[in-house]
Specification:
It is a single chain. This protein is an alpha/beta fold. It has a single domain (2-182), classed as Glucose Oxidase, domain 1 (3-Layer(bba) Sandwich), CATH 3.50.30.40. It contains eight helices and eleven strands. The protein has helices at 2-10, 14-24, 69-74, 96-105, 119-124, 180-202, 207-210, 213-216; strands at 29-30, 34-37, 42-53, 80-84, 109-116, 129-134, 143-148, 152-154, 157-159, 164-168, 171-175. The strands form two sheets. Strands 1, 2, 3, 4, 5, 6, 7, 10 and 11 form a nine-stranded mixed β-sheet that branches. A hairpin with a 2-residue loop joins strand 10 and strand 11 (171-175). The longest helix has 23 residues, at 180-202.
């Protein structure tokens, strides 16, 4: 069933999903996370990790692991990795080797609330990256991973592992796993009505009629 949800989500765009969230009274949209590498829309289940200042990182036993590697190895093909790097430090939360590793793993893309580096490499791999900003500065000595696959904060939205994400050039939307079925039903209905409006325009109907009262009440 979860795979069916991802397939359905992939057939939509962020605007239809955002409109459906409004219709249902749900919060999940995040603006300002730009489409930095690849022009492909992404949608999938969420795998998370959070970065904190280096001196606040938890002490862990065993050999050190590079940030993001645990999330990549935990991800299934088609998953979306979501990163919280809201430390205020100019330090990469994702980089070129991670992009290649994630692409090889079959990860759909990464969404980072924070800086990302090596963006030219990600573009060369055609690996989708959505992020708050770009930087050349390394994470080494600046930030470290606090945890993987626990809730993170992206914009004003709390995102849980196993939630759903969709991202395109218009924005990013997160959907709680408990809400995905009714969200998809609502979004597909909205997308269907907009497709009918497009057909009416192509058939010669005036735009003032197409975008009349029915359009204004689509979300009711």
């Amino acid at each position: 069933m979860a795979d069916d949800f991802v397939k359905r989500l992939n057939r939509l765009d962020c605007c239809a999903v955002s409109d459906a969230m409004d219709k249902l009274g749900l919060a999940g949209g995040v603006s300002g996370l730009g489409q930095r590498a690849s022009t492909r829309r992404i949608a999938g289940r969420v795998v998370t990790y959070k970065l904190v200042p280096k001196d606040q990182a938890p002490v862990v036993s065993g050999p050190p692991r590079h940030l993001g590697t645990t999330a990549i190895e935990a991800a299934q093909p088609g998953d979306v990795i979501v990163v919280e790097q809201r430390t205020g430090l100019d330090a990469g939360s994702w980089g070129g080797i991670l992009s290649l590793a994630a692409k090889v793993r079959g990860v759909a893309g990464v969404i980072a609330d924070g800086p990302v580096r090596d963006i030219d490499e990600a573009r060369g791999y055609d690996f989708p990256v959505y992020c708050r900003s770009l930087t050349a500065r390394t994470a080494r000595g600046r930030v470290a991973e606090a945890f993987t696959n626990e809730p993170v904060t992206i914009g004003e939205i709390t995102v849980h592992p196993g939630d759903y994400a969709i991202a395109d050039a218009s924005g990013v939307v997160f959907v709680r796993a408990d809400d995905i079925a009714r969200l998809l039903d609502a979004a597909e209905a909205i997308a269907g009505r907009e497709a009918a409006m497009a057909r009416a325009l192509m058939a010669g109907q005036p735009v003032s009629q197409v975008m009349g009262a029915d359009y204004e009440h689509m979300l009711r």
